[in-house]
Design goal:
242 residues, alpha+beta, OB fold (Dihydrolipoamide Acetyltransferase, E2P), two-stranded antiparallel ribbon, 4 helices, 12 strands
Length: 242
């Protein structure tokens, strides 16, 4: 599966790309507004890629068995045209208005009921085990795969101050089908390869309350925000047109 680069930006939220969770993964969730034609075009792009993988995954060795360390047919015997079969797969793209949570204290509720900002939207969680802020290029130079491209060119590496819930982003995604294992069913994972910020959006949280430097009333130099980096990163995202 080639890199999937979204045609249009989505809204970033639940951003955990600067520090891994307890499971060692870095994650971010994308929101796609059902009333936004451009964002729905991205949803259709993702859905088409997922459908293709499900179809191929019933007969081709495009999956990876992490337990056996070998390529496998991830969905043997499955029928890509059978809605009941599709429902058995864990898929990364979900409808927040209809997807019902199955575990935890909110089990039985839809995602939109639990998180009102998800209402009227599709959502997709991306994850990686790599610290994308500390990578190296072909020559061994340090680079970040989280880049601020909101001015139309590759700019500084993104930080917790510039990549906030509500920012507009475009990711480079690797969709990976996997077979059922001892503790999980079969499905498709969405792995984050790189991410660029394309512009500012409506913050989903109070940014001043989130920034511990706000109370100091620090002056800014050359218009820069306190705590951000002015050093441009190398461009690791040529495939994304930056």
């Amino acid at each position: 599966m080639a890199d999937l680069i979204l045609k249009n930006p989505a809204v970033a939220t639940y951003i955990h790309l600067f520090k891994p969770g307890d499971d060692g993964k870095y994650t971010v969730t994308l929101l796609f507004d059902k009333q936004d034609p451009a964002q729905m075009e991205s949803v259709q792009q993702i859905a088409a890629a997922i459908t293709d993988l499900i179809t191929r995954g019933t007969t081709e060795e495009i999956g990876w068995n992490s337990e056996a360390k070998t390529k496998v047919i991830p969905f043997p015997g499955g029928n890509a045209n059978d809605p009941n079969f599709i429902k058995t797969l864990a898929l990364p793209l979900k409808d927040a208005d209809t997807y019902v949570l199955r575990q935890g204290q909110n089990a039985g509720k839809t995602r939109a009921e639990v998180n009102p900002e998800f209402a009227g939207k599709y959502y997709m969680q991306l994850s990686t085990t790599k610290d994308l802020t500390h990578q190296t290029d072909a020559e061994g130079h340090p680079i970040s795969y989280l880049v601020d491209a909101s001015q139309g060119v590759a700019g500084p590496a993104l930080t917790t101050a510039t990549l906030y819930p509500g920012a507009m982003v475009k990711p480079n995604i690797w969709l990976s089908p996997y077979p059922a294992g001892k503790n999980h069913g079969a499905g498709i994972s969405a792995n984050l390869q790189a991410l660029i910020k394309t512009g500012d959006g409506t913050p989903l949280i109070d940014l001043d309350a989130r920034n511990p430097l706000t109370g100091f009333n620090l002056p800014t130099a050359n218009g820069a925000k306190p705590g951000t980096s002015d050093t441009p990163s190398a461009n690791p995202l040529a495939a994304m047109g930056i």
